[in-house]
Write a structure and sequence with these properties.
about 80% helix; 4 helices; about 140 residues
């Protein structure tokens, strides 16, 4: 067996990651649509970009692009924040499919505020990584 860690295993990992992100993206979309209604499609789309897209982007940025410890810190915090959003949306969607679960009336407001906060945090993250870029 080869000790080379490239090739097929990377392709398999990429395929698995892509498949899982498609599943969580679908769950996030359904959850946000259910919580906020059809009139909030823009927020649901931005939520998918911020949660799933942010989780992937900040993880890759941390591993392959970050040049300073501050950039690594910012990207790590945002990766975890986006992962928390994905997790909560996934759990919410799975629980929403159970007929015996009654969501509180304030949950749509929390979903809207949480999604907005994560979107703003991702935008702020881009500003912070530019600020903490090492001088060249």
């Amino acid at each position: 067996m080869s000790t080379d860690k490239s090739g097929g295993i990377n392709l398999l990992g990429l395929a698995m990651r892509g498949g899982l992100v498609l599943v969580t993206g679908y769950q996030t979309w359904n959850f946000l649509q259910t919580m906020m209604g059809a009139q909030a499609q823009l927020v649901a789309i931005l939520g998918i970009i911020a949660f799933e897209g942010g989780m992937l982007f900040w993880g890759m940025y941390h591993n392959y692009v970050a040049l300073s410890s501050e950039q690594q810190f910012v990207s790590s915090v945002l990766e975890w924040a986006d992962l928390a959003g994905v997790s909560l949306a996934f759990i919410g969607e799975v629980m929403f499919n159970r007929p015996d679960v009654q969501f509180p009336t304030w949950l749509p407001t929390i979903a809207l505020v949480g999604t907005t906060v994560v979107i703003i945090a991702n935008v702020a993250g881009f500003n912070l990584i530019a600020r903490y870029a090492p001088a060249t």
